[in-house]
Design goal:
heterotrimer, A: mainly alpha, MetI-like fold, 1% strand, B: mainly alpha, 13 helices, globular
């Protein structure tokens, strides 16, 4: 992912009206199509068919508890989505929770990656421990955090705060968004850290050493050489992290139940489908969510990420 | 002076690492206590520890859920590798702009909110008789992980020097040999990283498992919540169940961390 | 299987082979579910799948199922336990779509009449009445009324409950306070403020947003303050004065003397708090008393007192709820399922629980005769007579001061209610946390409730 450019360099050397090369190109294109086809077909079958069914459902008036009243409703469900006043707050919550978690995870991930890039006693063990939160099942993490860490009476966090003289905090009641972001940051920091650490370790040591011999300070070397080098790693971790975090559901269902600005689109959709029991309306919310997310994703991907703008194989 | 700074920095590093690991360490510690000790505040440290809670969890029919989780995660991971590797390779050798659109399509499928499609999925699976079917669950997990897998694999393939494959072609190697003999060994750490990430996501998935399975195919995540007991005093047994549920993935992650870092760094370490 | 060997076989073959081998392993490992079973009452053996909420009484049932299985060697029962919200989602999807994954389901009193009317549940009356020993008439009439459609029973109560006020006698004594047998909310609020200290809550009340969490106790407060969800014309009354007074009272009480972090709290959380003597009072389900009095697990057994639900304008308050066993119409094993349902709700089952697990653990509030079992009377002396009293006194047809167009105390039996209740509960939780005012929250709640009410007109 980092050195996508290497391919460009090698293929450029073959440019020109080379017959062999043209043959090769055509052959590649055919092979490529054959190789990509299974994945495309599989992906379309498993994700697009349900989506088409969702679109069909979204035009129906269908409450699960009123099975006798199923009928075509046209755009009625979509009108309810936009006039109901639930959608925009949920979109905002999703953006807020996802972006804060991604940014915090990126910052903490970079911080830990820099610390772990150094040699120190027990480094391998430290890295092993540091990646663990990412491996823990979100459902288990949410349960353990709720009952064992954040509980006002027996929770370890408030107990720890008490030791340094801070009053217990009613996490879920007073700070629901902070609670969710805190848990997600804890869980995803290791993922960002891993990618950034990989980036740090892939730096050319000789160049760094040469820079330090030339008398460049550590901070300057870091800003002038390390940070630009890390950019692609940061981008890829942000992209993958966002894709994973935007669907967050488990901690909200287990901890906050959607109060206080934690009703994200995923939770809203769950609520429409399984508490509202309104299949048609849930589907309409789903369709709008998909369109909006893909819209935002397209803009974000094509403007923010170099990998999509000019990182392609030429 | 330098030594002192180094020691301080190491201590500082360890402080953060231990802080981040604390919830998990505490979970494991709690799982070894009795229920009464687990619920005591201020927390107890010098108390008798035992594996009784683990036996209790095992006796509550843990094994079938564990087997289902293993099956769904392993099958979906194999499936993902089997179709993502050729697709990513195809995308990496194809010198056209359409690549961008195909890639974008894959990534965008990951943005489909599961909650939006779950009722349609439910009705489709019911119609074809695949509700509560662990193979169907594995297929869905495959679809869920495919985008990230294709994305990551393609980056790894992009880093394979073109000369290697072209040299192979001159020698008359066919495509399968080209991929298996020449390219795969180079990207092996990347494959390991992708496999691990697919496995983690499949193992940890909660929502599809909750709705689309009932009994025969039910996996561990929806089973976990049943350890919260309305009679109170369940911290220790819940911790034990959680520890058992996260154990396989944590173990796999620890074992494969070198490959994970190398895999994610691909490109530059060649 | 490594990726390399896979390639040698070619991709499709490897995938198919992999999937099939593993499918075979898994099939063997998990016993393959119940798809091979037919008939149910023939000679073949049947595996029943029972979906249930993960409450203690249900866990006891699972513990004791082996007794049933040895009495009926051809029937095996597989329990699938879920958290309440998960259970509702999974079972509703199953029953509404006719998927038929479950042979027996645990259903709340709110759903039973609606599902029965839609024809989703088996009419259990014929099977129950055919068995003279079962004694249908012994089931609590107030509970079975809510489970019947046109005189036929579509679910049987496994346990029933009302709500009562529980208090810690030691803390009351230390503060020199006496709890009356029929307290008013004004008195309770007064006590709570006096008993509140830095690490003890004056009262524990549910604040977790959810129609079955926060709004179960809160609706009873609304009722006794003279409010209601809907009037007889299905016009929402959520922003009416009595409803506002009740919610304001509840929110203020939590702020002045309640537990910290109220939005996290529901039944289980309060139970933990009370058991560690960190709450002086607790207003919740009567079934809590049987858990608090269990000497083997409860630290406060023997030091708790129990009185009627606090009132304001009515003479009695308290909700009425039951968790029931029902047989979905889609089951292929109806006879076997009915046999198990009968066993689990029989008098013999109650004896079995008492003798093997202890008498306080007998599922309460389902059978009148439970309250005349001598051992139970003795073991549950602290709370059984009160529970019996309250369950007979609560009127689900008119729990407040005004008539209402549905039967039910802390819920409204229309399909939209759980959605309405949840959304209003989230708004009230915001008011509890101080992010909005009660007035604003209920103004929004009124709009949500009215939309659902309009569908009834």
């Amino acid at each position: 992912m980092a050195a996508i450019s290497s391919v460009k360099a090698t293929s450029d050397t073959h440019n020109g009206p080379d017959v062999e090369y043209e043959k090769r190109r055509r052959f590649n294109r055919r092979v490529s199509r054959g190789l990509v086809a299974p994945a495309l077909i599989f992906s379309i079958a498993l994700t697009q068919i349900p989506f088409v069914v969702t679109i069909i459902f979204s035009t129906l008036n269908w409450n699960q508890l009123r099975p006798d009243e199923i009928r075509f409703a046209g755009f009625q469900n979509f009108v309810e989505v936009f006039t109901g006043g639930d959608f925009l707050p949920a979109l905002w919550s999703t953006v807020l929770i996802t972006s804060s978690s991604v940014i915090l995870s990126l910052v903490f991930g970079l911080f830990l990656a820099i610390l772990l890039d150094r040699k120190f006693p027990g480094r391998a063990a430290a890295r092993t421990l540091a990646i663990t939160p990412f491996l823990v099942m979100p459902a288990a993490a949410a349960l353990i955090w709720k009952w064992s860490i954040l509980d006002v009476n027996v929770g370890m966090l408030n107990w720890g705060l008490g030791l340094i003289g801070i009053d217990p905090v009613a996490w879920n009641t007073d700070l629901p968004v902070v609670t969710i972001v805190m848990l997600l940051t804890w869980q995803y920091t290791p993922f960002f850290m891993l990618i950034l650490l990989a980036g740090l370790q892939s730096q050319n040591r000789e160049v760094l050493e040469a820079a330090s011999v030339d008398g460049a300070g550590a901070v300057r070397t870091f800003r002038a050489m390390t940070l630009p080098h890390l950019r692609q790693y940061a981008e890829i971790s942000t992209l993958l992290g966002t894709v994973m975090l935007v669907q967050v559901f488990d901690p909200i269902a287990i901890m906050t139940k959607g109060t206080g600005g934690t009703k994200t689109l995923s939770y809203l959709l769950y609520e429409r489908a399984f508490i509202g029991l309104d299949v048609g309306q849930a589907a309409a919310f789903g369709v709008v969510t998909v369109i909006v997310t893909i819209g935002i994703a397209t803009i974000a991907l094509r403007t923010m990420f170099k990998v999509f703008v000019d990182g392609e194989v030429k | 002076m330098r030594k002192l700074t180094g020691a301080l920095l190491s201590g500082f590093t360890w402080f953060w690492i231990l802080l981040a690991f604390f919830p998990i360490g505490w979970m494991v510690f709690t799982s070894l206590k009795t229920e009464t000790d687990a619920a005591t505040i201020p927390p107890t440290f010098a108390v008798p520890l035992s594996f009784d809670q683990y036996r209790e969890v095992w006796d509550r029919d843990f094994a079938p859920y564990l087997l289902n989780s293993l099956f769904a995660s392993i099958t979906s991971t194999i499936l993902v590798l089997a179709i993502a590797i050729p697709a990513a390779y195809g995308l990496s050798i194809r010198p056209v702009r359409k690549v961008q659109d195909v890639l974008f399509f894959f990534i965008s499928t990951r943005f489909l909110p599961v909650a939006a499609a779950i009722l349609p999925l439910y009705f489709i699976l019911k119609t074809i008789g695949l509700l509560d079917n662990v193979t169907a669950l594995a297929l869905l997990y495959g679809a869920m992980n495919l985008p990230i897998a294709v994305w990551m694999m393609r980056s790894f393939f992009n880093d394979v020097p073109r000369e290697i494959t072209e040299a192979g072609q001159v020698d008359g190697a066919n495509l399968r040999v080209e991929i298996t003999r020449l390219v795969l060994p180079i990207v092996a750490p990347g494959v390991a990283a992708v496999a691990l990430i697919s496995f983690i996501f499949a193992w940890n998935e909660y929502f599809l498992a909750l709705i689309l399975t009932s009994d025969a195919a039910r996996t561990l995540p929806p089973y976990l919540a049943s350890f919260v007991d309305g009679r109170g005093q369940f911290l220790a047994v819940l911790s034990a169940a959680s520890t058992m549920a996260v154990f396989p993935v944590v173990l796999a992650g620890w074992a494969a961390q070198k490959q994970l870092v190398r895999g994610l760094a691909m490109g530059a370490v060649k | 299987m490594t990726t390399r060997t896979m390639w040698r076989f070619g991709v499709p073959a490897a995938v198919t082979a992999g999937v099939m081998t593993l499918a075979a392993c898994s099939g063997a490992g998990t016993g393959g579910g119940g798809e091979a079973t037919a008939g149910g009452d023939g000679g073949e053996s049947v595996e029943l799948t029972l979906a249930t909420v993960n409450n203690p009484q249900m866990k006891d049932m699972e513990e004791l199922k082996s007794t049933f299985e040895s009495e009926h060697p051809d029937i095996k029962v597989k329990f699938v336990q879920m958290e309440e919200g998960d259970l509702r989602a999974a079972v509703t999807a199953d029953v509404a779509s006719g998927a038929g994954q479950y042979d027996i389901v645990t259903v709340g009193a709110y759903e039973v009449p609606q599902w029965a009317q839609l024809g989703w549940l088996t009419n259990l009356s014929p099977a129950l009445e055919a068995d003279a020993d079962y004694d249908v008439a012994d089931l609590f009439p107030a509970v079975t009324d809510a489970l019947s459609v046109d005189g036929d029973l579509y679910a049987v109560p496994f346990y029933g409950e009302s709500s009562i006020l529980m208090y810690n006698k030691d803390l009351f004594e230390a503060a020199g306070l006496t709890m009356p047998d029929h307290p008013t909310w004004t008195e309770v609020a007064d006590f709570a403020k006096q008993l509140k200290t830095d690490d003890t809550a004056g009262i524990c009340l549910r604040g977790k947003p959810g129609w079955g969490d926060l709004f179960a106790p809160l609706t009873t407060v609304v009722n006794t303050f003279g409010g209601q969800w809907y009037d007889t014309n299905w016009d929402a009354q959520v922003d009416a004065q009595p409803f506002q007074d009740a919610v304001n009272f509840y929110v203020d009480l939590l702020a002045d003397a309640g537990q910290s972090d109220p939005v996290s709290y529901s039944f289980t959380e309060c139970l933990n708090l009370v058991q560690s003597s960190k709450a002086a009072m607790w207003y919740d389900a009567s079934v809590a008393a049987s858990i608090l009095e269990d000497e083997s697990t409860s630290a406060v057994a023997g030091s708790m007192g129990y009185v009627h639900a606090p009132v304001e304008k009515t003479t009695e308050s308290g909700w009425l709820w039951s968790w029931n066993l029902a047989v979905p119409n889609t089951t292929k094993n109806q006879v076997a399922a009915e046999t198990f349902v009968k066993w689990a709700t029989s008098k013999e089952y109650q004896q079995l629980v008492g003798e093997t697990l202890g008498w306080t653990r007998v599922p309460p509030g389902a059978r009148v005769s439970t309250y005349s079992i001598p051992e139970y009377e003795e073991a549950a002396a602290a709370f059984a007579p009160l529970t019996l009293d309250v369950m007979n006194a609560v009127d689900p047809k008119m729990p407040g001061v005004s008539p209402q167009p549905w039967v039910g105390v802390q819920y409204v039996t229309i399909p939209e209610f759980q959605d309405v209740g949840n959304q209003v509960a989230q708004l009230v939780a915001d008011a509890i946390a101080g992010r909005t005012t009660v007035e604003d929250a209920l103004a929004k709640g009124q709009t949500i409730a009215q939309e659902a009410g309009d569908k009834q007109k």
